[in-house]
Structure formats: C-alpha cells, structure tokens
Amino acid sequence: MQLYKFMSLEPFEHVADALLGRRLYCPKPDQLNDPLEGMLGHHIEGAEGGKPLDDQLRAGFVSMIETDRDLARARVCCFSARPDSMQMWSYYAGGQKGLCLEVDVSGSESRIIKVEYVDDMAALKTKSPVERLAFKHSTWKHEQEYRLITVDETKHKFLPIKINSVLISASTDPSFNLPLFELCRHLGLPREIATFSTLGEFRRFRLRPDVPFHERLRAKDN
Question: Which residue among 41, 43, 52, 194 is buried most deeply as judged by most CB within 10 Å?
C-alpha cells in the first residue's frame, strides 16, 4: 500500500530521523492541527456559557482524556492518498518548501483506515473518542487522509516504513539542499523534484541517485 507523508524541513532533525530510521513519528491526538480530534459530535458541558471556543475545546478534551483511558494512550499517524495536492504542499510541507515521502506501508496496511468525512454529527454520538478519530468534518476532505490509529503510546510511538521516493519541493530553501540531497544519496533513497506549473499541473522529476549534489551544481554551471 503506497501513501504520502508531507513534511516541513524544520526542524531538520525530524526529517533526518524519518529518513535514517525509516520511520514516522505518531503524535498524540492533541498534537494534531484539528482541534476537534476525538471530539467531533461530542457535547461539551457548559459550552453555552460564553467561554472562548479554544478554552471550551481544551477543557472538553482534558475531560475526555481523564475519563477515557484509550484516548489518553492513543496515537495517530496521518497520510494522504496522493502527492499532487497544492493545498497539502502548502499546509504540511512548509508552505511548499518542504518534502513529501512516498512510502510503502504494506506491513501495516491491515491497521490503516481511510478517514470518513461527515457533515451530520448525529451518527458520531454513540462512538467512543478513539472511534471518532477515524472521522473528520467534510471541510477537511481535500486531504484524502488515511490514518493508523493505535492505543498503545509506547509500542506505537513510531511507525516503520519503506521509503519509495523522496519528493523535494522545487521551492526548497537552498540551505537545505546539500544536507537533504546528500543524506538521500548516501541512504540510497530515490530523489525527485516536485513542482507545479503555472497551470496548476503537478510535476515530478527523478534525479540520478549516484550523482553528488555538488557535482550537479558544477554540471549546471558548465
């Protein structure tokens, strides 16, 4: 099963860990960028009291963690079904200056689910907070997300992966090019330049894996 993981290049140690360790970090639900993770369709007691929404959500999430043992131990690893979304490159790859890992998760595909996007929250009322992690509001449907959801925070802190290719944005900060390209070369990881045309078309160009980055620059100058 082939999926895609968008990443910013900062902090670079997170990228290096993913490439060197052939693994992805699985964050806790409250580390994700959707404030409704695990809370979609959940009624927050006292929400009508006029408190700011972020305070309500924070209080509601803390309350659920205190009462739901599985949610407190849950971890979520997120992927996209495709690499050619301009929105995903902008949101999750450092404003189109990062990268996208094309990964093979065949060893874990039985545990990976396709996120369901919903508008009607009524069906979620009977689901547990961990079960709700498999659902997101329809405003997120452009992400075409897949998830690995676990409830063992120690055992599943990282997900082993096979990296098929490293797609590097053509807009990457030049200061990252040498360490990123050379790290991929030494690890034998296929490198590709990813970009969008002025018509919005996604393009990817594979680079020779055996050519050092400084030699590529010299050849370009000549």
Answer: 194
Instruction: Look up residue 50 and give its two tokens.
Output: 């006029």
Q: Is residue 29 part of a domain?
A: yes
* Residue 169 lies in domain: 2-39+52-221
Mean pLDDT of residues grouped by 10 in the chain (222 residues)? 96 96 93 83 57 59 65 92 96 96 92 94 86 93 95 83 96 90 92 93 84 50 40
Rounded Cα distance between 213 and 161, Å, is 25
- If residue 59 lies in a helix (H) or strand (E), which one and from where to where? helix 53-67
Instruction: Give the separation between CA 192 and CA 209, rounded to whole angstroms.
Output: 10
The β-bridge relationship of strands 145-150 and 75-80 is: antiparallel
The residues, ordered by sequence, that sit 6+ positions from 47 with a Cβ below 8 Å of its Cβ are: 56, 60
Mean pLDDT, rounded, of the chain: 85
Cβ contacts of residue 51 below 8 Å, gap of 6+?
59
- Provide the domain count of the chain: 1
Q: What are phi and psi of 21, to 5 degrees?
A: -90, -5
d(CA 9, CA 99): 7
Does residue 46 lie in a domain region?
no
